[in-house]
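Fold this sequence, please.
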Amino acid sequence: AFGQPLVIEDRPVPEPGPGQVVVRMEASGLCHTDIHAANGDWPVTPTVPFIPGHEGVGIVTKLGDGVTSPQIGQRVAVPWLGYACGTCRYCLTGWETLCPSQRNTGYSVDGGYAEYFLAEAPFAAPVPDGIDPREAAPLTCAGVTTYKAIKVGNVRPGDLVVVSGVGGLGHLAVQYAKIFGGTVAAVDITDEKLALARELGADIVIDARADDPATVLQSHGGADVAVGLAVDDKSFATAYAGLRRGGRLVLVALPASGTLSIPVFDTVLNGTSVIGSIVGTRADLNEVFGLHAAGRTRVSYKTRPLAEVNEAIGGIRDAQPDVVLVDVHLPGGGGKAIIESVLRTNPEVR
């Protein structure tokens, strides 16, 4: 049931149908989407019971009728896009991630938190030799999602690119923005992630606990592109406020009930673009794997056995900043000053 701990159970090893392959899982990443799926947070919910996980990597063990690729023994990745029709206007124009008939791994079909996974052969992406499956797994979602966001944002050499949130997605977004020639500003509220951003080559590191990111960005002339990865409405608004004229805000994070209020006058006058970017195509994933195989990117990860999946989910949840409700009533309007002071030093407060 939604909102309940995941339960490990024995199931038969799946048999592949025509056009399908069976994959023995080696590693499967934990994404915030898996937590939303398990909680039934989003307007379109999975059908319970189901197996989460859409960052799976493993070895093909069995082929269904008609499958010529991949081959038995080949390592493949099973991403969020588990199937697209291939014939609609979106599939035919390179936007298969918008296919209205798509099936999503670990959401509308069983996912990778299992020993064996049933995949549609055309969507089981080959993993280049030499890539550790534990590194390949996050690349199938966190990697391809942020890579696509950098492409959708049309990042060009010399652009100032702000990455809002340096977590599982953000640490890869910093690297892709650098690969595309951007000057990168990284924003976060934890010392560990700010240090990681510096280590990965961020040119400007903004601690949102101490400084207003929009003010800092505008002091550098404003960002050409802002990539919104923090699951937080205020971070979206701050990223928007930090753009220069003609800037592009690319929304990636999916808070369950997130909203962004856009000033129409400023948006029109400044020629600002607000763009939604959803994961990436199979071609994008091939490019992501190619960059990693060439040594251009680094994946930061930790491992846990499948039996500790609920503890892993709890660790992700506990890493999020607390939400604090502030209700101050003081004579003479002093409450407003206190609230403003709290917000300046604690950006996670609502």
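Residues 133-152 form the longest helix (20 residues). Confidence is low (pLDDT under 50) at residues 321-328.
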